[in-house]
Specification:
Blueprint (H helix, E strand, L loop, with lengths): L5 H17 L7 E8 L11 E5 L10 E4 L2 H9 L3 E3 L1 H6 L4 H10 L2 E5 H4 L2 H5 L2 H4 L5 E3 L5 H10 E5 L5 E8 L4 H18 L7 E8 L5 E2 L2
Parallel strand pairs: 3-4, 3-5, 5-6
Antiparallel strand pairs: 1-8, 1-9, 2-7, 9-10
Length: 216
């Protein structure tokens, strides 16, 4: 059962959007969900990790790169998605610095079946270490849908500290879209926690340049 009050959430979303309109920025501000946990020991307790697909894309400008065969690279170029073929990956020469730079440049990666098998050999463990090992794109998959899914998914991963933040929307979205995204993200996070709501200390929403608003 969600302990998040619908009224409080609606009010907070309105406050955030109004605040963003008052001080308009030259870019679309992202809305972030900031989470504080309690009764959790990252040293002893299992560190959780999970990915949820939000119904509305929070960050439409996220950079996705296709590591593709000829056919997928052609499709990617048509969709204006950046792509690299096997030859381009070979040029990185397994250089750790270059692979790290590549991992930093993009939010996530997609790869064709023929390429994904070669990635450890071509790039070493760099992408995996960065938590960005590519998602497989089969020949029958719709590449546009795959790219949109990458942009819509949010990853919750507990590291050494008891706080985390994920993007759940942006100020160009409607209040209803934000409401649905936030509810879904919060409920998914809670389902990952060992004692569910008993592990949640605080939840805040914040626009890129705005002040945080507490929702729980």
């Amino acid at each position: 059962m969600s302990k998040l009050s619908g009224d409080v959430l609606r009010e907070s979303i309105s406050t955030l959007l109004e605040g963003s309109k008052e001080k308009q920025r030259k870019f679309t501000e992202t809305i972030e969900l900031q989470i504080g946990l309690k009764n959790y020991d990252p040293q002893k307790d299992k560190r959780f990790s999970g990915t949820v697909l939000l119904p509305h894309v929070p960050r439409p400008k996220l950079k996705v790169c296709m590591l593709g065969d000829a056919r997928h690279c052609e499709q990617a170029t048509a969709l204006q998605v950046e792509c690299m073929d096997v030859d381009a990956l070979k040029k990185l020469n397994k250089n750790k610095k270059l692979v790290k730079k590549l991992a930093k440049k993009y939010h996530s990666f997609l790869a064709s079946e023929s390429v994904i098998k070669q990635i450890p050999r071509l790039l070493g463990p760099g992408l995996n270490k960065a938590g960005k090992f590519p998602t497989l794109v089969a020949q029958t998959d719709d590449l546009h849908a795959k790219v949109e899914a990458q942009k819509a998914q949010v990853k919750f991963q507990l590291k050494k500290v008891l706080c985390m933040a994920v993007a759940v929307g942006n100020v160009a979205m409607s209040e209803r879209e934000l409401y649905i995204n936030i509810q879904m993200a919060v409920n998914f996070l809670v389902s990952l926690l060992k004692k569910n709501w008993q592990n949640v200390r605080t939840l805040y929403l914040k626009t890129t340049m705005g002040t945080p608003v507490r929702i729980y």
